[in-house]
Amino acid sequence: MRRSLAVVWRSLALACALALALAALPTGAASPPDTLVVGMDEDAVTMDPMNFRHRQTETILRNVYDGLVTRTPDMRVVPELAESWEQPDDTTWIFHLRRGVTFHDGTPFTAEDAAYSINRIVRDGAMGGQTSPRKGLLGQVTGAEVVDEYTLKIETDGPWPALLSFLPFHMMVPSETGDRMIEKPVGTGPFRFVEWQKGQRVVLARYDDYYGGSPELPPVGPAQVKRVIFQALPEPASRLAALRAGEIDIMTDVPVDQMGAVEADPNLQVLTVNGTRSFFMGMNVTKPPFDDVRVRRAVNLAVDVQAIVDGVLNGLATRTSTLLSPQAFGFDESLEAYAYDPEAARELLQEAGVGSGLSITVDTMPDNRPAAEVIAYYLEQVGIRTRIQSWGDYGAMVDAIKQGRRDAWVDSWGNATLDPSDIAEPKLRTGGRGNYSGYSNPRVDELLTLAARTTDQEARQDAYREMQAIVHEDAPMLFGWVAQDLYAVNRRIENWEPSPDSRINLHDAQER
Amino acid sequence: MSPASRRRCRTLSGSYLARRLLQTIPVVIGVTLIVFTLIHLTPGDPVEVMMAGQGTVTQQQIDQLRAEMGLDEPLWRQYLLFLGGLARGDIGISFYYRGTSVGSLIASRLPATIELTVMALLISLVIALPVGVLSAVRRYSWPDRVGTVGALLGVSMPDFWLGLVLMIVFAVTLQWLPISGRITYGLEPAHLTGLYLLDSLLTRNGPAFGDALRHLLLPAVTLGAAMAALTMRITRSSMLEVIRQEYITYARAKGLSGARVVLRHVLRNALIPTVTVVTLNVGTLLGGNMIVETIFGWPGLGRLVVDSVYVRDYPVVQAAVFVYALTYILMNLAADSLYTYLNPRVTL
After folding, report:
1. How much is the pLDDT for B1?
2. Model confidence band, residue A177 (pLDDT cutoffs 50, 70, 90)
3. Which of A259, B249, B250, B255 is paired with B181 by a 20 to 30 Å CA distance?
4. Closest CA–CA distance from residue A22 to any residue of chain B (Å)
5. SS3 for A493?
């Protein structure tokens, strides 16, 4: 018996010794010098710049590829691969391209590449028989053609004033590479593609012959850091741990409740930027009780949205008077958000004949559940019994809402261009793709058409302003907020700031 | 070859194996049919999910994308197309990972999961077997009590909690081990099997081996903890059962040493339930553990499949379930075969 125990003890001791020896190995957790590591919640879904609708993929690839135009951190559209542009008529755009730009394989960038890139998006079957899912991001563009080596013509089907707001998303690819870029991207951007370890990381290296990027975004020249790694780390707590351990330098999507932990660490700082995603509680206007505009206004009066912004979102959001972000084109700053007035709300409900006994269900995904609970609290205060239905799966929730039998739902909609068209068209136009409320107002439809079909920016602005006033009155949703995007950054990273369209442009970033 | 080992070989017949392998075909077809039906019955649509919250797409473009994905075909035809592709060894193109074949997606993720599973298994066995044996032979002693409490902790600690605690202690505070991924960029060994430890051993790449091992430790310990607890308790209880048998008393009376009795007569006979539990556990683990893979940014199969369910990536889910069914069946077969080795009276 003694000897049997000795065997057991010996194996245990051996296991412990092995574990200690492994643990004592030198550490290599910190990111290597000259390498900037961005910790993101998701990996890329493809390396083909025309075959996705996915924010993280765009964030990564936009460092490899440049566009005809780009945006400054304050969201102005400025030249990038195009030096200037003009509009000879309502449906034609001429772009004068930069000379002396080369792709990462050394071939020069010309109008042929630009035309190929645009056409690969807008033409049916242009991606090896498939059609680009990004086609909708070029709205009314029908095609592009070469005028001369450095002049490009883009044609639209009818006037399309929002073209410049959409162009920064589109990347210029070499016409020669064609569909092979799926495996090995070749761009003109500040970083060249090195490797994609699926599910784990995308590695990029500085392109030393970079033309310098937009002159409006100094410094102009090659990127500062030698290498960039986009590391996928889906769990926010792990991302933060990796940031604290020095394994990553920039962390995206910091949850509001982790802000304190970031701020407590002297090596880290929080950077915020106004996001472009609007949050709201949609209401089903096709059935009682929300088919009555008085009830919808009462909901807007009953809920103290500012309390949600302050309490749930730590103040890191901006309240909105309608669906539009305050940064959006045509935003009407004179329009005031509904004031918190539960007394007025009760009166309106009485007037509508739904004084008490009204009972609704609010659908939400887990992220928005805290906000939904506060909304429910305020609705209960004015006598609306509110049950919250939490969904585990967004696809299933939206499917249920689209059947038209749900009451209300807390949701959001993106507006990365900050042009009202890509949020107002789907959410507010009669029969719009995202108009789950079933809202319909002929005047709103008219105004949207007007704004979409004129290149007169003043007329567009007026149309959007009138639209905002009507929508504010019609209240097809409880108007909510635009949340800020939160990034946690190691203090040794300099010259980088987040961008409202959630791009991470690492051209100028450097390490101290 | 000794008479005993010859007898052992005879107990596992080739025709038995062939029959068992043939039986997998209807099982796998049944499983794929059930999963196919379930995932298509689940509300939500791959194109809608891709375009969720984005206004810049028309209904016509959505219909076109659905047609390109083959979603406009009737369901029965989609299923037959899937089976036909499977028979030809073509399991389709992912909806979500645009343009990537499902085969290459699974092939890129499977080695990570296998490596993690094997390491977790090793860690759990290294802890569970000695402690289980010790607990049984010295019942109610303090090592037994420590083992019992340890096992209780092991099964009670949720893996997301244990993973985060290990991470904060060993990666953030002590900075001994890394947090995310399988290996530090630039140290990857030459690609032979996709299993970094094996590849770096085969290519005699010391730094890669050390780095990959260090990346493996935290997730493997997290994953191995619950498994160790279970294995230990099973080993203990079945050892106790065997210890009371008459042939053990006889072996002792014969004057065999304590170690020889415990390891050769008790442990070997007591291992059958342990083998059952461990192999079935490994069958589950080879599907990938979504939680551990998510926490440690481990590029394994579990994360891929769960993500694919959320984005309604039907081809990936279908193919992965096919792989799961196959793995599980094979692990069952492996367990049965191991019985014949452990107990020559078992014939298959």
Report:
1. 41
2. confident
3. A259
4. 7
5. strand
